[in-house]
């Protein structure tokens, strides 16, 4: 009889991140950190994404219910013109954002932090993916914003939703744009002495 895999906690309410982890054979619990994202600052978009991920993972890792578990924290921002763009505040901002992005390329920066609450150690890093935006018309942008989707995702877009037709291509890890880079997660786990296959949920028979 094999031992059950270690508990894995995702410190994020993102359905996309949870889905990607499940598709990769993992079955994390979800505990939302409640970190005030507006209170976290950093010199660059990449460092901001990393600081947010580290904050979320550490807050959840410190909770009694996370004792003995591995905690994954992530946060994404779109870097455009050197600025970090998170979730737009409202429909007006989302519309302006898309009009400024179309026909251009930005870099989706996703910070990742894995805490091992058993060893009290953590590993962190940032994954970067270039996103080439298409040129949706004003009418298409208005329809997309009216759907409500861009208000809930970093950069006001996602590869696995209604904005997919407006993305011409990416250079790098597509999972990173959706919300979590599985190759980076594997490398961070390895730094902590944990093999990702050890965390696979038992296969259904």
Which labels suit this protein?
Nucleoside triphosphate pyrophosphatase, EC 3.6.1.9, hydrolase, cytoplasm, 7 strands
Summary?
The chain has 205 residues and is α/β, with parallel strands linked by helices. It has helices spanning 15-23, 45-61, 91-101, 138-146, 174-178, 182-191; strands at 8-10, 29-30, 70-80, 83-85, 105-116, 121-133, 167-171.
Q: What topology emerges from the helices and strands here?
A:
Layout lengths: L7 E3 L4 H9 L5 E2 L14 H17 L8 E11 L2 E3 L5 H11 L3 E12 L4 E13 L4 H9 L20 E5 L2 H5 L3 H10 L14
Parallel strand pairs: 1-2, 1-3
Antiparallel strand pairs: 3-4, 3-5, 5-6, 6-7
Helix pairs in contact: 3-4
- The computed structural class is alpha/beta
Strand content: 15-25%
Name the shape in a single word.
elongated
Radius of gyration: 17 Å
Tally the helices.
Answer: 6
Residue stretches low in confidence (pLDDT < 50, at least 5 long) are none
Describe what this molecule looks like in 3D:
The protein is of the alpha/beta class and 205 residues long. The chain has helices at residues 15-23, 45-61, 91-101, 138-146, 174-178, 182-191; strands spanning 8-10, 29-30, 70-80, 83-85, 105-116, 121-133, 167-171. The chain starts with 7 loop residues before the first strand and ends in a 14-residue tail after the last helix.
